Amino acid sequence: MIDENTLGAGALSRDGVSAEQALDEVRRLRAGDRPTHGGRLFAYVYDPAVPGLDDLTAAAHSESAHVNGLDPTAFPSLLAMENALVGAAGRVLGGGPGTTAPDVVGSVTSGGTESLILAVKAARDAHPEIAAPRIVVPSTAHAAFAKAAHYLRVALDVVPVSPDTLRPEPAAMAAAIGPDTVLVACSAPSYAHGVVDPVAEIAAVAAEAGVRCHVDACFGGWSLPYLRRLGEPVPAFDFTVPGVTSISVDLHKYAYAPKGVSVLLHRDATGRAPQYFAYADWPGYTMINPVIASTRSGGPIAAAYATLRHLGDAGYLRLAATTRDAVAALADAVRAVDGLRLMAEPESTVVCFTAAEGGPDLFVLVDELTARGWHTQPQLSYADLPASVHLTVTASVAPRVAEFGPDLAAAVAATHASGPVRLPAEVASLVGVLTPEALTPEVVAGLAAGLGLGGGDSSGPLPDRMAVVNTLLDAAPSALRERLLVEFVGLLQRPDWSSGE
Ligand SMILES: Cc1ncc(COP(=O)(O)O)c(C=O)c1O
Questions:
Q1: Does the Cβ of 237 fall within 6 Å of ligand 1?
Q2: Three-state DSSP class for 253?
Q3: Contact 323/149 with Cβ under 8 angstroms?
Q4: What atom of ligand 1 comes closest to residue 116's alpha carbon?
Q5: Would you give the DSSP letter of residue 168?
Q6: Residue 422: CB atoms within 10 Å
Q7: What is the enclosing helix (H) or strand (E) of 416?
Q8: For the chain, is the Cβ count within 10 Å smaller at the N or the C terminus?
Q9: Is any atom of ligand 1 closer than 6 Å to the C-beta of 142?
């Protein structure tokens, strides 16, 4: 017997609510988020602060939201917009008619991770004769390569970077290439520190070995070419470099399109062919997917198309100049504070700093900055690289940048005053002895309670201050970090069984 009173739960109300109420609920939930606009968020969101752009992209998104990319013959509008995005990206990255890479082709994907998974898949499937394929990446390569390797059962050969330059040695990349290597990858720039790998040298050693070379320009592929045109010393990293066989660039990053759009480019159609998946051996429609998703909304693609059309080349050049100035001012603000040190001189749109000898506890500092309305991203220590604080800088930051220096100095002073994080004794004693296998649900629940996570009280599932959580993770080896993260996020992702009213 179904009890009709229990039919609604979570998002499902029994009789439906008014459109106003539904939208009002979305807005109320959104109020608890970090601010996506206003130039004080240094991760997750890429905001050009161009008046009217949000309205334009929302309208374009809604025009195409119900269009399905499953079948380009049914919706030629989507095919045309995708081809226009690929042409634009190919041109920005040194390919197309009249260049040394005239045959560049590509696909629009949902994001950087999907682009990288597909670059690895294309490389793997180009070599069906290799039974146990491998890829070579610098240790600063985005984690999405590890995800690709995991999903596609490809082994990952990680080459350490120099703690001084934060780049891999091309000779070390060359030495890591073996007979089963199907792809060598590098970043332009790396997400963590914003430094550009020695792409030309790495592509050369890959070409010498007859192996594909992917340049992950998801983060910087749309900003570096404009920074170069502004006179910045950006090395060649695109299709002008011999040996580069594919490049990814995310339009939802520095092309300032709303989320859900990246482009994966190949030097030619032969390189792209093994990226496709086709299947005709079932009684339904024949399936041919260039990307991982089958059904996909036209909304993000139309929004990206409208963004590029509206901003134009001149708009991107202006935004790059604004961003470059903001980066310089933020780096100056860091240099002016005793106890902080830039991890690298900024060469793209990232400012990344660490604590010098006797400097502040960075995880406390991040919380102090948050308390002052600046949302930065803590990065845990890794191998011989120290913990650091990452700032992705977008054009929207420029008008706020003068406020950052004084707030940073005040936050550092407050951090020194409060002292470094002390893990609760019961938590600290566990970290030293814990192994991933020993993490039973009871141990995780105890840790979470000790850290104030998963609350269940009115303060919500996350503590205001994350320093203690970051300190715990920082103290743990990476296998334990991974398990803890899975368990903690599992605690957050719980169904909402409330009545739906
Ligand atoms: C260099 C680089 N590659 C790949 C990605 C993954 O992109 P996404 O988060 O869109 O999947 C990122 C994201 O920041 C990145 O910076």
A1: no
A2: coil
A3: no
A4: 4
A5: -
A6: 10
A7: helix 401-418
A8: N
A9: yes
Query: Is the CB of residue 165 less than 8 Å from the CB of residue 154?
Result: no
Within its chain, how far is the Cα of 461 from the centroid? Answer: 24
pLDDT, tens digit (0-9, with 9 covering 90-100), for 261-279: 999 999 999 999 999 999 9
Q: Is the peptide bond before 189 cis (omega within 30 degrees of 0)?
A: yes
Contact 34, 44 (CB under 8 A): yes
Per cent of the chain over pLDDT 70 is 97
pTM of the predicted model, to two decimals? 0.96
Summarize the confidence of residues 103-114 as an average pLDDT.
98
Q: Which residues pair with 14 in a beta bridge?
A: none
For CA atoms 406, 412, 416, 417, the dihedral sign is positive
Which amino acid appears at position 333 of this protein?
A
For 353-379, the pLDDT digits (tens) are 999 999 999 999 999 999 999 999 999
Q: Please give the angle made by the CA atoms of 41, 43 and 49, to the nearest 5 degrees.
A: 50
Residue of 199, 250, 256, 352 best suited for mutating to test ligand 1, as the one with most atoms within 8 Å of CB? 250
389 in Cβ contact with 350 (< 8 Å): no
One-letter amino acid identity for 177?
A: I
Tally: H helices and E strands in the chain: 16, 13
State the average pLDDT over residues 398-417. Answer: 98
Phi then psi for 47, rounded to 5 degrees? -120, 120
User: Strand 350-355 to strand 340-342: parallel, antiparallel, or no bridges (unpaired)?
Assistant: antiparallel
